[in-house]
Amino acid sequence: MMKTIAYIYTDPLIDTAPEDEFVGWEIDRTYHDLGQRQQLQQLIADCQQNTPEYLIIRHLQELGDTITEISDRLNQLEALGIEVIATQQNYKSSQSNINIKNNLAQLLQEIQTNKYSRLLQQGHARNRLKNLPPPGKAPYGYRRGKDRYIIDKSTAPVVKDFFEQFLLFGSLRGAVRYLEKRYGKKIAPSTGHKWLTNPVYRGNTKYKNGIIISNTHAAIINQEEAAQIDRLLRRNSLLAPRTASAPRSLAGLVICDYCHLPMTISRVTKRNKKQEYLYLRCHCCPKVPKCKAINYQQILELTINKICQELPIAVKELSQNKPNNIQNNVWTALEEKKAILNQIKELQNQGILDQETADLRSYKLQLEIAQLQAKIAQLPPKDLQAIASTVSLPQFWFDLSEAERRFYFREFIKQIVIIRLSANQWDLKLVFIF
Ligand SMILES: [Zn+2]
Questions:
Q1: Are residues 225 and 260 in the same domain?
Q2: Is residue 142 part of a domain?
Q3: Which of 23, 163, 224, 260 has the most CB atoms lying inside 10 A of its own CB?
Q4: Ligand 1 mean position to 432 CA, how many Å?
Q5: Separation in Å, CA 371 to CA 127, 130, 223, 324, 333
Q6: Distance between CA atoms of 72 and 233, rounded to whole angstroms?
Q7: CA of 423 relative to ligand 1 center, distance in Å
């Protein structure tokens, strides 16, 4: 004899699968519907044969799609003498006094109002499945096509150029200034930052609920560029705001091993002379006497020599250790998911998958692809070994401008620690980012 049964309805498009919904209840059987209400029909049929005492649900609206449906099913169940309890609403059929009936009327009213937002949510969820762009204006660089964003030939090059500037110099404000100077396009740095992180320019769509679907339209920046942007942004956020766009390549990287303070760059111009001298000084040094200032150029040359010696070794070690395997695994997983995604269209053409199944599967794959791509952005560059052989030549570094050098330093170095050997002798310890 069944005493207590439960019913759960979920819409696979907008609800997450419920778990432990009815803790504390001793439930003999749970009926669960996904998207349709076949189990509810079964439940009602079973109840006519073998009537339980209680039916536990979360919300009354799970009983139907319209107010009429909900009321009818509720009446039908209560007529059998079953007490219906909605755990997440103030509803119990046993308390069938005036107050509760009023309460029911009010609940039904609420359900009516919720229905509209649920319909909207379902509409958006269907758009997601079909990878349709979210409602509203297309982001700068795109326009709205029939079923996807299309690259806007007049504005997309501006966005592309903005990204390239940022990639070259690693400075958000610099790239913003460049845009105004070159194109007369004025944007706030906060807008520029949004561009740099907006999934839309990477060919992905982010929906209001935070879900990102990959490859929904043509990208303006490729995956490697996107990963590099993420690394630069992460590194910049670790640096003090002012040093992030300072023109000197060592700015913000150097730390003194003796007083453990960051070293800042100061400029000294000798009277009546054009030549300027750059020094590194321990910022607010507490030592007595203070740590001695060091010639900037000397440390720069020492850094270049060190990086040429140590980077190839560090990269080699890295490739022998696990991180590279993880890296390869992530890339392999990404390629596999993409291959499966390509097969789905074919399976659909062959009639093996129906439209709905194909849409749902593609949707899930694209979610997984987006997650893998986000993971890749956290890893060191894929072609690290190739890059390492180039950047191990001192000439490569000496040929660069300070801005370019700065950019490359930040690709590899987290910190440069200055070790004072004697008054005029120093050694360096490079801390690589990987
Ligand atoms: Zn010091």
A1: no
A2: no
A3: 163
A4: 21
A5: 20, 19, 13, 18, 11
A6: 57
A7: 12
Of 179, 210, 239, which closes a domain? 239
Residue 203 C-alpha to ligand 1 middle, in angstroms? Answer: 47
- As a whole number, mean pLDDT of residues 426-432 equals 91
Count other C-beta atoms under 10 Å from residue 256's C-beta: 22
Determine the pLDDT at residue 243: 56
286 alpha carbon to ligand 1 midpoint, in Å?
Answer: 8
Residue 282, token pair as written in the block: 């321990």
Supply the pLDDT for residue 111.
72
CA of 261 to the centre of ligand 1 (A): 6
pLDDT over 70 (residue 383): no
Q: Is the confidence at residue 430, as pLDDT, over 60?
A: yes
Ligand 1 geometric centre to CA of 257 (Å)? 7
pLDDT at 86 over 90: no
Range of the domain at 184: 149-239
Q: How far is CA 340 from CA 205, 316, 359, 360, in A?
A: 20, 33, 13, 13
**Domain C-terminal end among 97, 129, 161:** 129
Residues surrounding ion ligand 1 at CB below 5 Å: 256, 258-259, 282, 291
* Residue 422 Cα to ligand 1 middle (Å): 13
